Amino acid sequence: MKKQHHLDLLPGDVPETVILSPDIENIGRIAEFLLDARLIAKKRQYVTYTGSWNDVPVSVTSTGIGGPGLAIAVEELIMVGVKNFILVGSGSLLQTWPPVPSVIIATAAARGDGTSREYFPLEYPAVADWVIVELMVNAAQKRSIQALSGYVRSNDALFAESIYADRINYMQRSKTWIDAGCLATCPEAAALFTLAMARGCRAGAVVAASASHKRPYTFGYLPAGKANQAFTDAVTIVLDAASGLQCKQD
Amino acid sequence: MRDLHYEVQHHINMRQGDIAPTVLIPGDPDRPKLFASLMDEATKVTEKREYVTYTGTKDGVPITCTSTGLGTPPTAIGVEELCRIGAKNIIRIGTCGALQPFLEPGHMIIVTGAVRGEHTSEELIDMEYPAAADYRVVRALVDACKKLGLPYHTGIIRTHDAFYLESPWAHGDYKARLKPWVDMGVLALDNESSTLFVISAMNGVRAGTILSSGYSILEEHPEQDRIHAEENVKKMVMAAIEAAKLLDERGLA
Prior knowledge:
The complex is a heterodimer. By secondary structure, chain A is an alpha/beta fold. In chain A, about 30% of the residues lie in helices and about 30% in strands. Chain A has seven helices and nine strands; from the N terminus they run E-H-E-E-E-H-E-E-H-H-E-H-E-H-E-H. Chain A is globular. Chain A starts with 16 loop residues before the first strand and ends in a 5-residue tail after the last helix.
């Protein structure tokens, strides 16, 4: 088999479980968590490291921001044998009651993105794999990490629905999702959940939410230690779940 | 504005205090009677239109069963009113049209999410919103099936409105209509779940669905006539009762 066109990977380069990071800057930071992490491939925004966590082999791959880049990564990873995906994303809080930053375990996603629409009719559910959700919730409890679980909202145009929006009333656009209880935004979750479901794979996502609609803190404005802690907590939960999957059946 | 939470609800004919924290909702108004027969004790609370309610206890845990009628319009009314009077967990119990070749009579389908192929939930919120079961209810149903030794599958189903477009008695080529959903991993068809999931999530109430399976409606089965569907439905109701007990035990009721 030829190397995958974008990810530059061959079967055997990655184990069954891969952690996905939309942020290419974070991929090295996540790799540092792993034991014996080796750089496997690097092409465009797709950087892959393979190592292990709790003696279970795990890879991390960066996807770039949004559904289009993520879908390419998921399709190509499936072609080299991947079965489980867990995304460590970033986003904004939609609710005002959680602390900033918060760690959000996504159980399902509102499909405001274009990628999942091109693949599947809008009535198809973007739902996280419940086994991964449960593993992440249990990992958080075990490590005394404060994490919330609930729905997230995916969309494509950051500058239409975020604290960075200037020409558009983003609070008005987001009202439906806020009223329906969505906890945070996560641009990639809907594409990941639908694609994994249709391909018979498991998928989950956790969001380190370091910005809030009501209180416009961004990553930079938060004390660095606080933002880093949310990211560290999110990665730890994801890696615990990834290694837990190995010995887990329903 | 009137606070509707404190009134006798117009359709289900009950108010706060009339139901247990966990409510099982079959479509068929005859099924609450079957539920009652499987409890340690249960009494009829009320009956109005397609909404028949029994409440009882099993091993000391209070559980309610309220029928919703078939289809998403009455399901939406029933679920919304149950949320208003304090339901914490709502579990749909029912039958389905199986779509995958590995499904058989006696198998239980534990639903994790549903295709929103109906219109009722769309009137309530944009189609982008997901119809997802609560993972804790899924866990309780899985554990209940394990405990009772029932074979089960977890996965997504498709909820839709027009039974006579997507069933073996349908007009035209129902198999062609269903093929895209089969390819997307949909296990089965029902007529209620996606509305239940959407309304429950919007109300902060946990929801789930367990369905008693048959053979795939896309294939011919010589055994089709010898299926003891009622016996399997009874096992499904027993699994849902067991799940309600587990939710109570886990502090979720």
